[in-house]
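Interim report, section 4.2 (structural modelling).
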Amino acid sequence: NAGVTQTPKFRILKIGQSMTLQCTQDMNHNYMYWYRQDPGMGLKLIYYSVGAGITDKGEVPNGYNVSRSTTEDFPLRLELAAPSQTSVYFCASSVTGLGEYFGPGTRLTVL
Amino acid sequence: QQQVKQSPQSLIVQKGGIPIINCAYENTAFDYFPWYQQFPGKGPALLIAIRPDVSEKKEGRFTISFNKSAKQFSLHIMDSQPGDSATYFCAASWDSGAGSYQLTFGKGTKLSVIP
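Predicted structure of the assembly:
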């Protein structure tokens, strides 16, 4: 099993550009999550999904969108990138909603 | 309140020492308390977790102590090694409905174990 994979590893965006962060898991987990991690601030939940076709907002959803058309994939969309979205983004998945497996992260810089 | 307060921010111990990291919470609806370990450039990895009906849990050199009445829990690392140098996050989770759990993280503790 590859576990949770994320692409790209690094990305630099200009203000106002859009991009999609990809996340795929091969463990057949129903629960998937997107977090952002800022220095000294821990991880904050952006969006989560309890299964294909079901998504919901977390603590910091503004400026982001998600979709979940399959069990395996949970992409995160940034429509109009802003400097405040400079962060490291982690995707995670779990079987029961507890004990999450995290991906390796995407480091995004918005200039 | 959904906040989890973690201390200290950073910690330096000598090899063989027992670093202790503390967390406190307010929301009594929290019912699952995991700890994560994160190495630079990597994603967090689940280390150990506890439920509030248990006061202590050990897995290898890692122990969680849980004090429900004080709403506090802590991570102890026995016989710490330089390879334990990482950032540690406590978290707390509650069922936000229909079996959907959401984690609230502390801000992290950077542990350095010096030889």
